Structures are given as C-alpha cells and as structure tokens.
C-alpha cells in the first residue's frame, strides 16, 4: 500500500512538472499542487484512454494511466485551470 502511494506521488510530480514545462505562460502553483495536477492528469489520461480505445489494464472506468497518458491529462487539466483562472481574474478587475 505504501509503495502504491509513493508511486502515485512520484508519477504525479513527474507528469505535473512536465505539463508545466509544456504549457506556455507562468503558473503560480506550489510543488504540492504540481503533484495534485499530475495525479488528476493521470485520471484524466486514464479516462480518455478508456474512452478512445475501449480497454484498460484493469478493465475499470477510472484507472491511473501510464506516464504518457498522465502527462497528456495533466496538460489538459492545466490548460483548463489557467483558462478558468484568467476568467476569474478578469471578472474581478
């Protein structure tokens, strides 16, 4: 169980960091939020892989995907986060 948690955190950190490097612009988020971004991206990537290919390693609906799917999902999540964040800041100003 501890190994699974450590693996999820490490994959989340790697996927979140790569997604932050790919997406242009400045993202003011901490390392913890980068890990969360990668973990959310992993679930998004797993869901998209299930929807597109209709198969998954465990045959389930929401499964953590591999590192490539995690990065793609983290990029999607970060793009959504930056767009929603920009909209909120422009409404307040």
From TrEMBL:
KW Transcription (keyword) present: no
Superkingdom of the source species: Bacteria
Protein keywords: Cell membrane, Membrane, Transmembrane, Transmembrane helix
Gene Ontology CC terms, in alphabetical order: plasma membrane
A Pfam family reported for this protein in Swiss-Prot or TrEMBL: Transgly_assoc
Keyword hit for Mitochondrion: no
InterPro entries from the UniProt entry: Transgly_assoc
Membrane topology annotation: Multi-pass membrane protein
Primary location class: membrane
Family from the record: Belongs to the UPF0410 family.
Descriptive protein name: Putative membrane protein YeaQ/YmgE (Transglycosylase-associated protein family)
Transmembrane regions: 6-23, 30-53, 65-84
Organism in which the protein naturally occurs: Allobranchiibius huperziae
Subcellular location: Cell membrane
């Amino acid at each position: 169980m501890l190994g699974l948690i450590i693996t999820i955190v490490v994959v989340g950190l790697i996927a979140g960091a790569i997604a932050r490097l790919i997406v242009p612009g400045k993202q003011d988020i901490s390392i913890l939020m980068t890990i969360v971004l990668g973990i959310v991206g992993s679930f998004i990537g797993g869901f998209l892989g299930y929807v597109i290919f209709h198969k998954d390693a465990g045959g389930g609906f929401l499964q953590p995907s591999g590192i490539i799917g995690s990065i793609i999902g983290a990029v999607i999540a970060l793009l959504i986060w930056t767009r929603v964040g920009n909209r909120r800041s422009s409404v307040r100003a």
